[in-house]
Design a protein that fits this description.
Largest sheet: 9 strands, mixed
Strand content: 15-25%
Shape: elongated
CATH topology of the largest domain: TIM Barrel
Radius of gyration: 22 Å
CATH architecture of the largest domain: Alpha-Beta Barrel
CATH superfamily of the largest domain: Alanine racemase
CATH class of the largest domain: Alpha Beta
Oligomer: single chain
Number of domains: 2
C-alpha cells in the first residue's frame, strides 16, 4: 500500500470492486529492471495491463513493447510509441492481422511453426522473425509451457527455412513461466539457445537476438528474489554461454512491471456456512474469477488479502468465492486463508499486488456485472 493509494481510497471512496494503480511504482519498477539488466532492452508485455496511462508512462521512459494483437499495437501507437519499438510476440496470429501490423510499421514477429512462418513471409516481407522454443515452466506459479514454442530440432529447421524466405531470421525466444522464482531456469534456457546459435552459425545463419521473455515476479504471500538477483543471474548466464559474443538481448516483463503497483478494493457480499457442522465459512466477495481474478484458477496466484477496520484477533480458515452464478467462481478453498470471525456483509477488503492480469481478465458483462474499474494515479 502506497501513501498515494491510501489517500485515494480515503478521499474518493470509489465504488467496489475497483483497482487503483500507482504509476510511481511502475516507474520505479522500470528503472530497477533497467538498472539490473543494463544490456537488455525492455519490451513491456502489454497484456499485463494496457491502461493508457501505463503505456504513456513507459513510452516516455523509453520502453519498447511486446504485443499480442493488433488492438494492442494500436494502443501502444496511440500512447506515442513508434513501431520500431514494437514486437508482435504472439505465435498465433491471423494472416490478416500480420498484414495489418506490417502496415502499421511493425517489423519484428514471433513464430513457432512452419505455417506461422509462411504467413509472416507472405504478409510481412522483409520482417525480422524470431522462433520461440519450449521450456518446462518448472518453478513458475503460472507456467506457460506446451501451448507455445517448439523443440530445438524444429526451431533449427524453421530458422534454416526462414533463411530462404522473404524474412530475416533474427533470433530465438523462450519464456520460463510467469511468476518464476527459480533463477536457474533462465540458465537452462540460455544454454539451449546458445547451442542453437552455434549450430545455425555453422550452417550459415547468423542470429542477432535472444528474447529472454518474462517471468519476473511480484511478491504475493511469499518472498521472491530481488530484481538485482535476476539481473545478475541472467547476465552471468549470458556470459557463460555466449562469451564475449553477446547477441542483442530483450526481456518482456509484465507482472514484474505492474503487479505490485495495484490494489483492488472489494466488498464482502455474504458470509455463510453450508451446515451447522461446517468447519469453514464461505466468504463471497463482489469480485471473483470472472471479475478479474482469473489467475486464482487452481489457486495458482495467491494474493495477499487485508480486511479493513478494527478487528478481533480471532480468525479462522475460509473459502473465498466470487459473486456470480457459476460454481467455478471459487478462488481459494485449499490455500488456508484466515479471515476474522467478526467479518460480515458490507465489510471492505483489499487485495494486494493486483496490478497485473486483472482488468484484462475481467468479463465484459458475465451475469450482468460490469468490468473491473481501474484508476491510475
Amino acid at each position: 500500500m502506497t501513501d498515494k493509494i491510501a489517500r485515494f481510497f480515503e478521499e474518493r471512496r470509489p465504488q467496489t470492486p475497483c483497482l487503483v494503480l500507482d504509476l510511481d511504482v511502475v516507474e520505479r519498477n522500470y528503472h530497477d529492471l533497467a538498472e539490473a539488466l543494463p544490456d537488455a532492452r525492455i519490451f513491456y508485455a502489454v497484456k499485463a495491463n494496457p491502461a493508457p496511462d501505463v503505456l504513456a508512462l513507459l513510452t516516455r521512459l523509453g520502453s519498447a513493447f511486446d504485443t499480442a494483437s493488433v488492438p494492442e499495437i494500436q494502443m501502444v501507437l496511440a500512447a506515442g510509441c513508434t513501431p520500431d519499438r514494437i514486437s508482435y510476440g504472439n505465435t498465433i496470429k491471423k494472416e490478416a492481422d500480420i498484414r495489418r501490423a506490417y502496415e502499421l510499421g511493425v517489423r519484428l514477429f514471433a513464430f513457432d511453426s512452419e505455417a506461422e512462418l509462411e504467413k509472416i513471409a507472405r504478409a510481412a516481407p522483409g520482417a525480422r522473425v524470431f522462433c520461440r522454443i519450449l521450456t518446462s515452466g518448472e518453478g513458475a506459479e503460472w507456467p506457460l509451457s506446451r501451448k507455445f514454442g517448439c523443440d530445438l530440432t524444429m526451431a533449427r529447421e524453421l530458422l534454416l527455412k526462414a533463411r530462404d524466405m522473404d524474412v530475416e531470421p533474427w533470433g530465438v525466444s523462450f519464456h520460463v513461466g510467469s511468476q518464476q522464482k527459480d533463477l536457474m531456469q533462465w540458465d537452462l534456457a540460455i544454454h539451449q539457445v546458445a547451442m542453437l546459435f552455434r549450430e545455425l552459425e555453422v550452417l550459415g545463419v547468423d542470429l542477432g537476438m535472444i528474447n529472454l521473455g518474462g517471468g519476473f515476479p511480484t511478491r504475493y504471500r511469499s518472498d521472491v528474489p530481488e530484481t538485482t538477483a535476476y539481473g545478475q543471474a541472467i547476465f552471468d548466464s549470458l556470459r557463460r554461454h555466449f562469451g564475449n559474443h553477446l547477441p542483442e538481448a530483450i526481456v518482456e516483463p509484465g507482472r514484474g512491471m505492474v503487479g505490485n503497483a495495484g490494489i483492488i478494493e472489494s466488498e464482502v457480499v455474504l458470509v455463510s456456512r453450508k451446515s451447522a457442522t461446517d468447519t469453514k465459512r464461505w466468504v463471497y466477495l463482489d469480485i471473483g474469477k470472472f471479475g478479474g481474478l482469473a489467475e486464482t484458477m487452481d489457486e495458482a496466484i495467491q494474493y495477499p488479502i487485508e480486511v479493513l477496520g478494527d478487528r478481533t484477533d480471532d480468525a479462522e480458515e475460509v473459502i473465498l468465492a466470487g459473486p456470480t452464478c457459476d460454481s467455478a467462481d471459487v478462488m481459494y478453498e485449499r490455500a488456508e486463508y484466515k479471515l476474522p470471525l467478526d467479518l460480515k456483509p458490507g465489510d471492505r477488503v483489499r487485495i494486494h499486488a493486483t496490478g497485473a492480469y486483472t482488468t484484462t481478465y475481467a468479463a465484459v458483462a458475465f451475469n450482468g456485472f460490469a468490468p473491473l474499474e481501474q484508476y491510475c494515479i
